[in-house]
């Protein structure tokens, strides 16, 4: 497909999945771009995340210990935990999912962090509404109905409890993608000095007036082609800098929103993903050890 038309399709899909665009209108417009209904369906499949995509770190990797269910006593969130076998008091990184909820891709991301020496804790933020449904459209609907204030409070409490857990080194960071990237900024605002580091991947940002409340150092990854997120992200970064906060902004030219998600054939950008991941691990090693 012509690169310009492909980019139009990617941006249209982003509007559909993030701005509540009507499904019929979305498909009609995608059909105009693709040339036929059949071609539109095929194109959508290459842009959307595929639940059948292979994991980078397999679920049964023998170097790791993983479990699913309760994350820590006293906090109601359930989810997925991964760490290296034999790890002694590792730092914690909370992994916040996209707007599709806790899925196998995010579990894979947690395992990657575990191999890099962290206790990776991936909460299902849809726990209060019964957990992440199998259907991703239903998951997006459920995410949109969450009480965001309550969700942030639950995540902040989770961070505090994990830091006090004697199985960790007492330091905790948070990383999130898309909806989770936005969530990282909100937890940084709410947690203050209770958070040790935060990494946000292409997440819309809070009101700039909240920047003064942030205490943790932040690393912000921005997809260069992601104009939707840029509208709130640029003022947020400027406000953090004006307030004297420790913020590192990294832009990835030519990369689309969700460039880290290797289950999306057309949006995944391996070069950008690898570069951002290396920066993320170095950032967490610097602030959590």
UniProtKB/TrEMBL annotation:
Annotated InterPro entries: AB_hydrolase_fold, Dienelactn_hydro, Dienelactone_hydrolase-like, TAT_signal
Keyword Hydrolase: yes
This protein's record includes keyword Hydrolase: yes
Lineage: superkingdom: Bacteria
Keywords in alphabetical order: Hydrolase
Domain (Dienelactone hydrolase): residue spans on this chain: 78-287
One MF term in the entry's GO annotations: hydrolase activity
Gene3D superfamilies, per the entry: alpha/beta hydrolase
Pfam family, any one: DLH
PANTHER family per record: ALPHA_BETA-HYDROLASES SUPERFAMILY PROTEIN (PTHR46623:SF6), CARBOXYMETHYLENEBUTENOLIDASE-RELATED (PTHR46623)
Listed name of the protein: Dienelactone hydrolase family protein
């Amino acid at each position: 497909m012509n690169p310009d038309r492909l980019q139009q399709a990617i941006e249209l899909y982003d509007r559909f999945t993030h701005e509540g665009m009507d499904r019929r209108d979305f498909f009609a417009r995608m059909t105009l771009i693709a040339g036929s209904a059949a071609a539109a369906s095929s194109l959508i499949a290459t842009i959307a995340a595929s639940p059948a995509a292979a994991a980078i770190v397999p679920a049964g990797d023998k170097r790791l210990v993983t479990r699913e269910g309760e994350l820590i006593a006293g906090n109601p969130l359930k989810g997925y935990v991964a760490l290296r076998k034999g790890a002694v008091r590792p730092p914690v990184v909370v992994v916040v999912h996209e707007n599709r909820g806790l899925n196998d891709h995010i579990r894979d991301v947690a395992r990657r962090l575990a191999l890099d020496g962290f206790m990776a804790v991936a909460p299902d933020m849809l726990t209060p509404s019964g957990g992440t449904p199998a259907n991703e459209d239903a998951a997006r609907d459920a995410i949109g109905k969450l009480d965001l204030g309550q969700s942030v409070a639950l995540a902040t409490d989770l961070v505090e409890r994990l830091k006090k857990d004697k199985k960790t080194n007492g330091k905790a960071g948070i990383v999130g993608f898309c909806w989770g990237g936005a969530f990282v900024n909100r937890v940084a605002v709410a947690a203050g000095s209770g958070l040790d580091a935060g990494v946000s991947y292409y997440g819309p940002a809070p009101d700039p007036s909240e920047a003064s409340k942030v205490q943790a150092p932040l690393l912000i990854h921005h997809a260069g082609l992601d104009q939707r997120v840029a509208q709130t992200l640029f003022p947020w970064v400027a406000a953090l800098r004006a307030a004297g906060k420790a913020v590192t902004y990294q832009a990835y030219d030519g990369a689309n929103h969700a460039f880290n998600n290797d289950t999306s054939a057309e949006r995944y950008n391996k070069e950008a993903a690898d570069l951002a991941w290396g920066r993320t691990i170095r950032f967490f090693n610097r602030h959590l050890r």
